Amino acid sequence: MSTMSPPRLFCFFSFIKVTKLGLWSIWLSGFLLICLSLYATQLLGSLNVEIRKPSFYYYQKGEANDKRSPSITIFSTPSIFNGSVGARQALAVRSWLGLSPDVNVVLFGNHPSLQSFAAAFGSRVLVESNIDFSFQNTPFFHSMTARAEASSSNISVLVHPETILLPDFVSTLNHVYELDHDWFLVAASRRVSFFPFDLDEAGRKWLRQDGKAIRWQKLQYFMRDTWKWDLCEGRMIMAWNTRDLPLHMGVLPPFLYGKGLHDRWLINEVYHSNFRFVFDASWTISNIYVHDANDNELTQTTSLSSTFLELGMTDWEQNGNLQLGQTYGLFSSHQVPFTDFMKLLKCNGQFMFTDKEENIVYSPRQWSSNSLWEGRIMQSRREKKIMGCITGLISAAGIMDCFSKGTNNNQLMTLNLPFGLETLLSLVADENKTVVLAVAGYSYTDMLMSWVCRLRRLTIKNFLVCALDDETYEFSILQGLPVFRHSLAPRNISFHDCHFGTKCFQKVTKTKSRLVLEILKIGYNVLLSDVDVYWFKNPIPLLQIFGPAVLAAQSDEYNVTVPTNLPRRLNSGFYFARSDDTTIAALEKVVKHAMTSDLSEQPSFYDTLCGEGGSNRVGDDRCREPGTNLTVQFLDRDLFPNGAYLGLWEEVNVQEACAKKGCYVLHNNWVSGRIRKLERQVHSGLWDYDTSSRMCLQSWHRKQ
Ligand SMILES: *[C@@H]1O[C@H](CO)[C@@H](O)[C@H](O)[C@H]1NC(C)=O
Ligand SMILES: *[C@@H]1O[C@H](CO)[C@@H](O)[C@H](O)[C@H]1NC(C)=O
Ligand SMILES: *[C@@H]1O[C@H](CO)[C@@H](O)[C@H](O)[C@H]1NC(C)=O
Ligand SMILES: *[C@@H]1O[C@H](CO)[C@@H](O)[C@H](O)[C@H]1NC(C)=O
Ligand SMILES: *[C@@H]1O[C@H](CO)[C@@H](O)[C@H](O)[C@H]1NC(C)=O
Ligand SMILES: *[C@@H]1O[C@H](CO)[C@@H](O)[C@H](O)[C@H]1NC(C)=O
Question: Which protein residue's CA is at the shortest distance from atom 13 of ligand 2?
């Protein structure tokens, strides 16, 4: 830490500060992003800088008798428990649980088969789905890692769901837990083509095929034969002691889990951040996975290079990750070679660290804590024996380090349009062919993400996003949103001042009605929701009630004593339009009107459907467009309040005030300027996105 250069240190402490200030300040943390880019530049600029080691790490000489073993939580993201993959996963998880009662397991995912698998193990195996997933249900690695970092156990472990752990895992972790320095270890997983052992009923003993228990030593012989691992493309375990110190300084990009390269990225970040002592425990943590030659999926999901060569440009998720790698400079050569890490070895029953040259750098009990072995003449036979053991171990292991292979920047691809509108519609629409549509430009990406996170929390999956510009499009792809770039969208608008009343705003809103019309014509009902509409609960079931030939829209009227359908009080930022002939014909009129109007589309909606001056009004909350006979239903303002109604945004507890009214949504309009809008929403707590870490806020975030 002492060697940290000033800007990094400064940014680091600002980071701590920002997280402590609480939610309302999250949007302010643009500063942090500036720091991060500074940091990234530094990294890139220091390609050849020598790798620093922590200057001290020694073992606490605590009283041996009151030592309690640390609690260990293993985090993993299985696919569904079914077929041969399911069997391998089940064996792996059982092998973890059998190691020690101190081991607990958290499985990330939302498939019901996870729950039914976990149920058999009681509280030792929990299934959590409160991390970020892409719309195709691929979990995000950065979100998984953040969850593991927030763990309340003493040690967190990230492991592939098919990796079998053997007993030396726990003894190694218990041992390194005593290091008086925060640490982070990696251990390569060995790939075997067969593993002829099974766990006994209790999950504690390994049995041979004849049903007899096999001793640990014998298992180790078996492991020796497979004493090869591939640091470049193979799987690995990552483990660390959980304390206040973060794993790394930067922000982990939103990598999709199982699409390669995220492990290496994280390890690289941890190493370069220099907060922790990073070492390679591949020799002391025996772990394997069975490679099924029939199962191509295995190799595809573990290896970057093979994946992107084999899959070409077909997999947009892969493309997204490549794009990320490029954006964040992943493929630059500052990647640390794993062979540079200190190695944790065990010789003669003693743990010891050796460096790249195989010098013993530290061994706990035999030598006093500060004396390095380097340069000493080997005297005793015991010392010679240990040196022999070390050389033996290391030369026996066939390590392939991917550093030398390098990566070819020319192979990187840029994002292409993965899904057109029609494909996306068919992917996301619900059983009634209804979709929720949001339209967003770049200055509203934080708002967009908060809105998306809110919908995800409400388990609403039938939404899609139209990106108004390339930045929003790429950002949304990387965040796993169902997004499309539309030819109707104006392409080169600067959105920084694109708020109500501006020319830009008018252009954008006109895009919205044209898009809605197009989707209706394809055959889907559309609930258009601006991203500044906060959703308390799912309004779709309620909106379905109105039936065909009715367009249900929010009223912008705030005066409680007057009707909701007065002139120009139709809010075109939240309405439900059905895909029927009447609605389509009426919306066509709106779009036509808007094209010839100098105003935004909002007055076009009202003037076309309710008549200028409200000549088509029916009662206090409806209009009927005579040409098409479309009914406009203004939504109950208690349930769908606009931003000026009852001063809800000025309430001390907005959430509570809205709950009392029974709100479904609350529009964050009637406020001028993007910043004040953001401020109002973040300040009220109706905010669900962490801008700095680029993930949805979860209950485990709020703990801090
Ligand atoms: C593990 O963590 C708990 C709470 O954070 C702490 O009380 C306990 O002492 C830790 N155990 C060990 C062995 O350090
Ligand atoms: C489980 O696998 C079988 C074939 O191995 C397949 O027919 C079945 O649909 C799968 N079940 C689920 C829930 O995917
Ligand atoms: C689809 O419509 C039917 C009938 O209106 C309703 O009962 C059902 O809940 C709707 N489904 C969804 C997902 O909204
Ligand atoms: C960009 O916008 C300006 C006006 O806003 C317009 O005249 C120009 O044609 C646009 N360029 C492109 C490439 O769309
Ligand atoms: C609401 O409307 C009533 C009747 O038109 C009017 O007297 C009153 O001043 C209005 N209140 C507000 C706050 O505008
Ligand atoms: C228009 O719709 C209303 C109900 O929405 C219906 O009563 C009326 O008969 C319709 N008129 C025509 C001309 O279709």
Answer: 82
Strands of 550-555's sheet, edge to edge?
483-485, 463-467, 434-440, 525-529, 570-577, 550-555, 630-634, 622-625, 617-618
82, 85, 117: residue to mutate for ligand 2 pocket, most atoms within 8 A of CB: 82
Q: In the structure, what pLDDT confidence band is assigned to residue 335 with cuts at 50, 70 and 90? A: low
**What are the pocket residues of ligand 3 if the criterion is a CB atom closer than 6 Å to any ligand atom?**
430-432, 540-541, 544
Question: Are the beta carbons of 437 and 527 closer than 8 angstroms?
Answer: yes
Quote the ligand 6 centre to 151 CA distance (angstroms): 61
Considering only the C-alpha atoms of the chain, give the largest distance between any 2 of them, rounded to a whole number of Å: 104
Q: Quick one: residue 225, left, alpha or beta (phi over 0 = left, psi -120 to 50 = alpha)?
A: alpha
Ligand 5 pocket residue status of 559, Cβ below 6 Å = yes
Please answer whether residues 235 and 262 qualify as being in contact, where contact means their C-beta atoms are separated by less than 8 angstroms. Answer: no
Q: What distances in angstroms separate CA 210 from CA 193, 213, 219, one per listed residue? A: 20, 9, 15
Would you say residue 62 has pLDDT above 60?
no
Q: Report the alpha-carbon angle 437-442-446, nearest 5.
A: 75
Q: What is the rounded CA–CA span in Å between residue 524 and residue 426?
A: 9
Alpha-carbon distance of 704 to 695, in angstroms, equals 15
Identify the weakest region by mean pLDDT among 305-314, 389-398, 645-654, 655-664: 305-314
**What is the number of the ligand 6 atom nearest to the C-alpha of 629?**
1
In this structure, which residue's CA is closest to atom 3 in ligand 1?
154
Both tokens assigned to 512? 């919205």
CA 457 to ligand 3 centroid distance, Å? 20
The reported pTM is 0.80
Closest CA to 326 of 260, 405, 418, 409: 409
Tens of pLDDT, residue by residue over 105-114, are 999 999 999 9
Token pair for residue 212? 């007899």
How far, in Å, is the centroid of ligand 6 from the Cα of 580?
15
Question: pLDDT tens across 656-691, in order?
Answer: 999 999 999 999 999 988 899 999 999 999 999 998
Nearest-CA residue for atom 6 of ligand 3:
541
pLDDT at 126 over 50: yes
Q: Is the CB of 382 under 6 A from ligand 4?
A: no
**Looking at ligand 1, which residue's alpha carbon is closest to its atom 1?**
154
Instruction: Please give the backbone phi and psi of residue 474, each rounded to the nearest 5 degrees, phi first.
Output: -65, -40
Q: Which atom of ligand 3 is nearest to the CA of 540?
A: 14
The pair of structure tokens assigned to 323 is 């794009």
Q: How far is the CA of 138 from the centre of ligand 2 (A)?
A: 19
Domains of the chain: 72-298 (3.90.550.10), 425-690 (3.90.550.10)
Supply the residue whose CA is at minimum distance from atom 5 of ligand 2.
83
